[in-house]
Amino acid sequence: MIESRILLLGDDSFRQLYWQLLPDGYVVINLPELKEEARPVLALLDLAWLQEQNVPQVLESLEGIPLLALLTDLTGFHLLNPFLSQLELRGVLVPPFVTPENCALVEQVLLRQRPDQAQLQADLARANRALNQRLQEINTIYTIGKSIVSTLDLEAVLSRVVTASVNLTQAEEGFILLYEEEILYLRAAKNMTAENVERFHKEVSDSVAWRVIRSGRPVMLHRKTKIATDYLASALLYVPLQGLDGSNVGVLAVINRTRDLAFTESQLFTLSSLADFASITLENVRLFEAMVTEQSRLRSILRHATEIVLITDEQNRLLLWSRTAADAFNIPATAQGVSLQDALNHADLIDLFANDAECVHAEIALADGQVFNAQLTTVPGVGRVAVMQDITHLKELDRLKSEFVSTVSHDLRTPLTTIQGYIELLNRVGPLTNVQEKFIDKALRSLTYITELITDLLDIGRIEAGYNLEMHNMWLDLLLEEVGEELLPQAVEADVTLSWETEPGLAVLGNRRRLRQVLENLLSNAIKYNRAGGWVRMQARSEGAHVIFSVVDNGFGIALGEQSRIFERFYRVCTPETDTIQGTGLGLAIVKSVIEKHKGRIWVDSALGKGSSFTFILPGAREAPREK
Ligand code: ADP
What we know:
The protein is an alpha+beta fold.
């Protein structure tokens, strides 16, 4: 129907809210939908939406249409003021907008009962008064809101909320009841006698409060009502306090006892806002207490942990640590928030935290001989957690085992040399038959294998124990040349082309004998596990402060699943091609040990059937070697 159009001038949130002001049966339109032939019967204008630019367009569109202005704030009003005489202004609505009075006014205008000028003036004056009152209320609410975000003092906030509630509603008394474990008790009060405060702190029996708690809805009464244990009120306003999960945790109440003065809808609105602040503080305090409990529980778990645990923030400042950590690293109780570097005196542990990889492992030794296996993990958003297990006894076992192997190997070597000597002498004591020669040959090959095995075992023991591992700066061209020349006959015999190259002037800090051994083992493998006609290349190049070595071949290659295991002691890959090739399975274990003693790293890339590339990285020499 053409007559039933209502023009809404405001933004979308405004549409949602003031829809409720309108009676049923009207079509609501926006400015762009306005048509000359279908003029609306009423326009609702949100003054906050009005801006200097849209004033002319609004004035033009409003010509001849009865208008109700919504005074959300005073900003838009001065824009409209000069044009009041041109407008068909029927009334000004102030918050809260959706009230029975405002709905009646809208209906009245719709019925074309044009209020007279005097009525309009009175409306405006009333609106102004109401708005001033509202501003004062909002100011108080804002002040309380600001103060609660900065405090966890529940006592102070609740008493501030009750005082503000009483002042803003001009009530005689006010109080907050909290609901806990099926009882209601008084938590804060204003203008209540000390005797009642004392009495209600234990338990309050108040049927109106119970109604609010159970329904979650406010109650506003204007009649003699018996509240909190024989307490008589002539008017009351109760609003619920709601937790984050929507549960009702208490009641904020204002009452008039002697004065027969009712509370209003607008006061209900104010009280609800204040109740929200009280609820937020209650929730904050609850969360804070939960956090403190959780933290002290975590601390007590850490106190009793047998492992060493250290937790830092993202800047490596200490957050939490176990008692074992405090004992091991002498961490004082006051170290919370102190940077790790200042809190403890252990270079290896500080180095560990300086590494910013996601997960790092290291062995940490204490001055008293204890050794720990440390794992440092980054926890996003928290910081870093180091957990360390005591492996002192495992290290001791490992040392004993190595010592045992070394001793046995050493003691075996002498009789073996004697056996070898005598076998080699056999052909000098008389002519041997072909069969005897074949047997002697087999015995000698087995002896060579055992001797190699023992040499390797002894080597591993010595390398791990760090015997004779003095480091010197050395040129690499010479080293590569020596090893290449040494392995050339083996390559020629296997029909494998061997080549090597290095950048001029390259040097590393290392143990010459052991680095030679590393390159010999890698080259020897690359030749051994290769086909006739294949090739092997050895190379060294610099990268920053490091030197990268590689030994590449186009031999049998290693299956992916085996690649992580070939550095283990005695691990040999079994394939039909490699089955007949002799070896102890200790070569790469020695290589890895030596490189790690040089603070380097080794890794392999390989493809089965295509070849392998062994690469290792060592710190470069800090200064030029003195002699070649
Ligand atoms: P081994 O004495 O058996 O050579 P290593 O520890 O040197 O012992 O090597 C372990 C295993 O790794 C070898 O048995 C071999 O199967 C494999 N391997 C090592 N180097 C190569 C290579 N260049 N090509 C293919 N396989 C290799």
